[in-house]
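In practice, a research group might receive sequence data for several interacting partners and want a quick structural hypothesis before committing to experiments. The following worked case mirrors that situation: the sequences arrive first, and a predicted assembly follows.
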Amino acid sequence: MRQTIRPARGIHGVITLPGDKSISHRYAMLGAIAEGTTSIVNYSTGADCQSTLGAVAALGAGVEREDGVLKIRGGALRAPEGELDAGNSGSTIRMLSGILAAQKFDSKIGGDASLSQRPMQRIIAPLTEMGASIEAREGRFPPLTIHGRELRGIDYTLPMASAQVKSCVLLAGLFAKGDTTVREPVRTRDHTEIALKEFGAEIEIVRNVITLREGARLMGREVTVPGDLSSAAFFLAAALLTPDANLLVHAVGLNPTRSALLDFLVSMGADITVIDVQQTAGELIGDLRVRASRIEGGVMEGAMTAALIDEIPALAVLGARSESGLTVRDAAELRVKETDRIAALKKNFERMGVRMEASGDGFHVPGKQAFHAAEIDPEGDHRIAMAFSVALLAADSPGVIDGSECAGVSFPEFFSTLHQIAS
Ligand code: S3P
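A structural hypothesis for the assembly, expressed as tokens:
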């Protein structure tokens, strides 16, 4: 599909976003192994989260929709008939592998061309230490053939900042003999820890060290997924780079391990107000108001980069319009996302006549740049497609996103929402 994006002078309105992708995956997986039924309100509409649902259904969980509420009947899993399909979703394959490694059956899990190039050694190493038996293409890529085994708890220090790897080890730990400890180099999103507690596991967190006690008994429950802050990032960026904007984002997730986005935007000069914060199943949820602002630019590195890893494409676009530009460091992980996002940003910025200097693990975009309309190639990466849609709002004439359907990986309603608020 080709989506045309016209320049916009303003962003106005009230929007509600589909459920957070990270939290949706976790609720579906925990619901599938918990006793009884889990009811999930506002489950993500993204294709990635549908991949998780397809996989847990193939493993024997009951998956139904009743009046817009997703119901998952959980319990013991059974061997799937064919290969499990994680589609484009790194979260599905990496987190579910932790569960699969501990089952009494063998399974195989793979995905699309992009996922098939993504590194799996990062989960194979700790799972193998727990006693798992996993074969991978060339020892490190999907598909994975997982021979279910009895696992033992380990004390694992993550070599990189990755919530998916942390979650994989904790989910495997649910079935393991002994406690499981994960130590993080920097704190990453903690939705797994929060959800595990909510479903009844005993878990202790002391700074960057998480310990799951052996023998957890999970019980199904009713949960509501907050709107996805990573999806909101595109509209926040859109509002901040159009001359006239006043946008309310309703009921969005404000978990502190994710809301560094707001701190960073505010540090760049963004006028963002957080309104009416509440808690649901241990997660914070609230409304955001954003108004057009003068954006100064900024430098992102270390723990901040890890906390903003999914928002960097949107922030790069904003950075190129800011006063002093954006510098991103310590972002080697961007090279192994759905695409090499540093390369995809550079290529598409070049098409728009925008300068960007890339290094192995970061980049710099100078500020105050003019955006020229272009045909964008997101290379099948949803966040690249959405970030450059925002960029085209600030271009000199209409531009096109080629293969725009990839936005559906996390946000099928993205273009209709954008058209609704842009004028
Ligand atoms: C996610 C963790 C991050 C993030 C991804 C979702 C999660 O990946 O980029 O979009 O839900 O745990 P990594 O664990 O590879 O950093």
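Before designing any experiment, note the following. The mean pLDDT is 98. The two ends are 22 Å apart (CA to CA).
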